[in-house]
C-alpha cells in the first residue's frame, strides 16, 4: 500500500508526508465484514482504519446511535418519464439486494429509514432523456435517514442523475443495480449548502455483461463521505468510476471505493480528480481493488490526482490493490498530489494570458478529461460553471 | 523603432543553501531590426537571463533595470510583459494537460492583440502558420506540448512567435534537439518573423550551425552571469574553434574590478 499526503501549512510553505511504513496494514481491506444489524458494529472511535481520516465530531452522532431522525429527505423524480417510480416501505423485498452495510453508519441508516424510493428502468427500454432524482436534505439541524434504489432491468439503456441539495445531516444507502446486459450511467452530484453532513453508502451491483458508468461530483457540504462498493454478479461486468471534487475552506470530502472483483472477465476503471483550496480544505480518497481467486482475466486500473491550489489545504490519497489470482489481464494504480503548477501558469502568462484566465484554463484542463465524458450537456455545463465559480470565490 | 535596454541586471535564485546570485550585472541593448546571438558555457546563466526578462517567479531580480521603449519591464507582471511585446521561446516548453493547443493559441492571440481575432480569419492564419512550420493539423486538438517530441515543442514555440509577433523575442536554445530539416524549418520561421526589419531577437545558442541560417548582427559571450565580450559574427567562429577558455579568466577579472 502506498499512501500519500500533501499538506500545505501556513505561509511557511508545503510539506510532503509519506506514511505507510509505520502502520501495520490490515490483513485484507477487500474482504469486509457486513451486516444489516447496527449493533453488529462497534461504535467507531476514529482511530480505526475505516475512520482515521474522518473528523468524527462533524458526523453529528450518525456513527454512535445518538442521531435520532428528526426530519426526512424530500425526493422528487423528474426528467424522462419512462422510468417507474415507487415509494415503498421497509418491508419491500427488493431492498438490500445490491449489498449489505459495511460500516456502522450504513447499518444505522438501514435500520432507521422509513420509506425508500425505487426507480426502475423497464426491461429493453432506452429513455431518451436523463431521469433526474433530486434529493433535498431535511433542513438545518435536522437529521434524516434515507434509502434509494435505482434498478436498470436487462437490456435497458439509461442515464440517471442523483442530485443532492439542501441542508441537514443525512445517513443513507443507495443501491445502483445494472441487471444483465443493461447499460446504466449514474451521475451523482453532492451540491449541498455549507452546513450539510452526508454519509452515503453506495452499493453497485452488476449483472452479466452489464455496463455501468458512474460520475461522482462533490462540491458542497461541510462533510461528505461516500463509500462506493462495486460487486459483480456474473461475467462480463464493466464499471467506469469517474469522480471530481472541489474542496473549499473547511470542507471535508471523502470518497472510498472498493472494486470487488469476484467474477472472471470483468473490468473496472477508477479515475478521481480533486482540487482543494482554502484553509483546512480536506479531501480523502481511498481506492481499494480486490481481485479474488475466481476473478480470472480481470482488467482494472485506478487513478487519483489532486491539485492543491492554496496553502492550508490537505489531500490524502490511498490506492490499494489486492490480488488473489495470477491470471489477470492487467492491474495498476497511481495516485498523485500536486501543488498548483506554477510552471504551467507561468507558461500561459508568458503568452499574455492574464493570471485569472490562466488559472481557469489550468484547472479546467485538469478536470476536463473527466467532465468531457459527461454526456448530459446541461450537467456538464453546470459543473464547469460551478468550478469557475469556486475559483472566482477564492479570489487571488 | 523599439528598444530593449538591459542595465546592470542582477538576479538570484533560492536554493537549499540560501540564495545564489546568478546574473552578476548584465548590460545589453537590443534595437528592433537587430539579431543578437548569445553564447556561453553551460550554467553561465543564459536561461536565467531569459526567465528573468519574462518574469519567472523563481528568479529574484535584486537590482538593475530592463526598459522596453522606456517602460520598466521589471515592474510588470508576467502577462503584462508579454502583452507589452516581450516573448520567450523556452529551452524546455511546459506541458499543460487538458488545454488544447487551439484554445491556448486563441487565448494568447486574444490577450496580446487586445481583442479576439475574427474566427474565419484566425483559422486561416493558424493553418498557414502551421503549414509553414510543417506542423500537422492534428496538433490543434492536442493538449499544449503534452507528449510532443523535443523538436515538436520547439516548432510550436516558433508557431507562437509567428502568430503573436512580439516586438522582442528571446529564443532560448530553440535550435537544440532539432535535426537538420527541422533546423531549417524553424530558422525559416524565425527569419519570417524578422523579415520586416521591425523586430529584435536575442538568440541563445551553443552552436554556430543555426547562425548559418540566421545571420546575427552581434555576438555576445556570456560567462559567469554577465556579458564578457561582444563582437560581430566572427566571434562565433572563434568560439566554435577555441571554446570559452580565453574567456574563463575574464570572469574573475571582472569580478575583482
Ligand atoms: N531553480 C534553481 N535552483 C538552483 N539553482 C539554479 C536554479 N535555476 C538555475 N540554477 C543555477 O543557475 C546557474 C545558471 O543556470 P542557467 O539555466 O541559467 O544556465 P544556462 O546558461 O542556461 O545553461 P545551459 O547552457 O546548460 O542551458 C546554474 O548553475 C544552475 O544550476
Ligand atoms: Mg539554458
From TrEMBL, chain A:
Residues 140-366 form the SUF system FeS cluster assembly SufBD core domain. GO terms for biological process: iron-sulfur cluster assembly. This is Fe-S cluster assembly protein SufD. Residues 1-11 have a biased composition (Polar residues). Signal peptide: none annotated. Belongs to the iron-sulfur cluster assembly SufBD family. It comes from Halosaccharopolyspora lacisalsi. Residues 1-33 are annotated as: Disordered. It holds the Pfam family SUFBD_core.
From TrEMBL, chain B:
Keywords: ATP-binding, Nucleotide-binding. This is Fe-S cluster assembly ATP-binding protein. Residues 4-249 form the ABC transporter domain. NCBIfam families: sufC. PROSITE patterns: ABC_TRANSPORTER_2. It comes from the Bacteria. It comes from Halosaccharopolyspora lacisalsi. The keyword ATP-binding applies. The keyword Transferase does not apply. One of its GO terms (molecular function) is ATP hydrolysis activity. Belongs to the ABC transporter superfamily. Ycf16 family.
Amino acid at each position: 500500500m502506498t499512501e500519500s499526503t500533501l499538506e500545505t501549512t501556513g505561509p511557511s510553505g508545503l510539506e510532503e508526508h509519506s506514511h505507510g511504513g509505520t502502520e501495520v496494514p490490515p490483513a485484507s481491506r477487500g474482504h469486509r465484514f457486513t451486516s444489516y444489524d447496527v449493533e453488529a458494529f462497534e461504535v467507531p472511535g476514529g482511530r480505526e482504519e475505516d475512520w482515521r481520516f474522518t473528523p468524527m465530531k462533524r458526523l453529528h452522532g450518525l456513527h454512535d446511535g445518538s442521531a435520532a431522525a428528526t426530519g426526512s429527505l424530500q425526493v422528487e423524480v423528474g426528467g424522462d418519464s419512462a422510468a417507474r417510480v415507487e415509494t415503498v416501505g421497509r418491508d419491500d423485498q427488493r431492498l438490500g439486494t445490491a449489498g449489505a452495510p459495511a460500516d456502522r453508519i450504513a447499518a444505522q441508516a438501514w435500520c432507521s429509514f422509513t420509506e425508500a424510493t425505487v426507480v426502475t428502468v423497464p426491461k429493453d427500454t432506452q429513455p431518451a432523456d436523463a431521469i433526474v432524482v433530486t434529493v433535498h436534505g431535511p433542513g438545518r439541524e435536522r437529521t434524516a435517514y434515507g434509502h434509494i434504489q435505482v434498478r436498470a432491468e436487462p437490456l435497458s439503456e439509461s442515464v440517471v442523475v442523483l442530485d443532492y441539495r439542501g441542508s441537514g445531516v443525512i445517513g443513507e444507502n443507495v443501491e445502483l443495480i445494472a441487471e444483465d446486459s443493461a447499460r446504466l450511467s449514474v451521475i451523482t452530484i453532492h451540491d449541498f449548502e455549507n452546513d450539510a453532513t452526508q454519509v452515503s453508502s453506495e452499493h453497485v451491483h452488476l449483472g452479466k455483461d452489464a455496463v455501468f458508468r458512474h460520475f461522482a461530483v462533490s462540491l458542497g457540504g461541510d462533510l461528505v463521505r461516500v463509500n462506493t462498493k462495486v460487486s459483480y454478479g456474473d461475467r462480463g461486468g464493466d464499471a467506469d468510476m469517474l469522480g471530481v471534487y472541489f474542496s473549499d475552506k473547511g470542507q471535508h470530502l471523502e470518497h472510498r471505493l472498493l472494486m470487488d472483483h469476484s467474477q472472471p472477465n470483468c473490468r473496472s476503471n477508477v479515475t478521481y480528480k480533486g482540487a482543494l483550496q482554502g484553509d483546512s480544505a480536506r479531501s480523502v480518497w481511498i481506492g481499494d481493488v480486490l481481485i479474488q481467486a475466481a476473478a480470472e482475466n480481470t482488467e482494472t486500473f485506478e487513478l487519483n490526482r489532486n491539485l492543491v491550489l492554496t496553502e492550508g489545504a490537505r489531500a490524502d490519497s490511498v490506492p490499494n490493490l489486492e490480488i488473489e489470482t495470477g491470471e489477470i489481464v492487467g492491474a495498476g494504480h497511481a495516485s498523485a498530489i500536486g501543488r498548483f503548477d506554477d510552471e504551467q501558469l507561468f507558461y500561459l502568462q508568458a503568452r499574455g494570458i492574464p493570471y485569472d484566465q490562466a488559472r481557469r484554463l489550468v484547472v479546467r484542463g485538469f478536470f476536463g478529461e473527466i467532465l468531457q465524458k459527461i454526456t448530459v450537456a446541461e450537467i456538464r455545463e453546470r459543473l464547469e460553471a460551478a468550478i469557475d465559480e469556486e475559483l472566482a470565490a477564492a479570489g487571488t | 523603432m523599439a528598444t530593449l535596454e538591459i542595465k546592470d541586471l542582477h538576479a538570484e535564485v533560492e536554493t537549499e543553501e540560501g540564495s545564489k546570485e546568478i546574473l552578476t550585472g548584465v548590460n545589453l541593448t537590443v534595437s528592433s531590426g537587430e539579431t543578437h546571438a548569445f553564447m556561453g558555457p553551460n550554467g553561465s546563466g543564459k536561461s536565467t537571463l531569459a526567465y528573468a526578462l519574462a518574469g519567472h517567479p523563481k528568479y529574484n531580480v535584486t537590482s538593475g533595470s530592463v526598459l522596453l521603449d522606456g517602460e520598466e519591464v521589471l515592474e510588470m507582471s508576467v502577462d503584462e510583459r508579454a502583452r507589452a511585446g516581450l516573448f520567450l521561446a523556452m529551452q524546455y516548453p511546459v506541458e499543460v494537460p487538458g488545454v488544447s493547443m487551439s484554445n491556448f493559441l486563441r487565448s494568447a492571440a486574444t490577450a496580446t492583440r487586445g481583442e479576439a481575432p475574427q474566427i474565419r480569419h484566425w483559422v486561416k492564419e493558424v493553418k498557414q502558420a502551421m503549414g509553414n512550420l510543417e506542423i500537422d493539423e492534428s496538433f490543434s486538438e492536442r493538449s499544449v506540448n503534452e507528449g510532443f517530441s523535443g523538436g515538436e515543442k520547439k516548432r510550436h514555440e516558433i508557431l507562437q512567435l509567428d502568430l503573436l509577433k512580439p516586438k522582442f523575442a528571446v529564443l532560448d536554445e530553440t535550435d537544440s534537439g532539432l535535426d537538420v530539416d527541422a533546423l531549417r524549418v524553424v530558422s525559416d520561421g524565425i527569419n519570417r518573423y524578422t523579415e520586416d526589419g521591425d523586430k529584435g531577437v536575442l538568440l541563445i545558442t551553443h552552436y554556430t550551425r543555426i547562425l548559418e541560417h540566421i545571420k546575427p548582427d552581434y555576438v555576445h559571450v556570456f560567462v559567469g552571469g554577465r556579458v564578457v565580450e561582444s563582437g560581430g559574427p566572427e566571434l562565433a567562429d572563434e568560439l566554435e574553434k577555441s571554446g570559452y577558455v580565453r574567456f574563463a579568466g575574464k570572469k574573475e577579472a571582472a569580478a575583482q574590478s
